Amino acid sequence: MCRWFAYISPTEPCLLEDVLVTPKNSLSRQVHDHYLPQLIAHNPEDLHDADHQMTARNSIYNIDGLGVAWYTSSNSDFERGNTGESSDGILKEGLRPAVYKTVQPPINDLNFRSICANTETRVCFAHIRAASSTPIVSVNNHPFIFCRHAFMHNGVVSDFTKIKRGMCDQMSDAAYSGINGGTDSEHIAALYMTFLTDNGDASSFERDYPVEKMAEAMHKAVAAVVTLQRKLLGSKAQPNSLNLCATDGIKLVAYRFRNHATEQPPSLYYSTKAGTTLNRKYPDHPDGIDVPNRSAGKAVEDHGRHLIVASEPSTYKQEDWHLIGKNQCVLAGPESFEVRDVPYEKAWDAEDPNA
Length: 355
Known about the structure:
single chain; Glutamine amidotransferase type-2 domain-containing protein; six-stranded antiparallel sheet; GATase_2_dom; 15 strands; alpha+beta; Ntn_hydrolases_N
């Protein structure tokens, strides 16, 4: 069920190849194999075999598309001098996302490999997809872009086709117009943008918003989905798996959510240290391999502050990774970092007919 990787730092760029390709458990290799330390059983009272915790909602083959968004200042660097004028009438200051999407297997996609080998960024979103019921085409690949904002999802909005119209009815015109594909994920992204901008027009997508506002918008999007399901489906409403992540190139909010009394959402981890091991300028290797002369690189303490949020750890140092708890969110800004419980109502608990 999909995998994703997010990196953000106010000062320290990463090389896409280092974080997405090189590690033995990099995102581009999480097509079949999975590494899930610290993960508790999905349903502690229903363990049918020793591999249960490794398989439930985590081990579907992720072969249905790749997407990468990396933030760059290239557009703003080439605005017209210091006049404040821009080529299209909208001055895009700061970082903006460049995007590459493909339905090719990532590790054998030469375009992807070339981009990764030659691109550095301080903010990266990357996602490999396991399609549920929508077509395998590039436009359905995450991350989804709304001007400066990027959004991605691992999981499923249950009974999406039954609540899709209700979701669309709650969207702003600008957010609805920004949908290019047919996935549940892009629709919840549009709900997020609607609440983030307070139903603003397309120009509101160019603004950055406080991280608390981002977290509030994400909760409202989740609440809108669950409320619609309860209203339209009643007791037949099924639980959702909503591992969500959004950034504006400055701040990041990530969500790990499942509305079931005992079952866990798909895996999600964070690290504030692994970026050093993932950067070839610094000592150590993500797989613990002894690389000649790598120890002659920069001192570890010189590495800038950063945050990685990912479906799975991509370095051998298990102690650098922390499993985000069920129904918790991560809020990160240039000077702040917090993990907190998300607002949750007991009435949201739904039954899983496949449990």
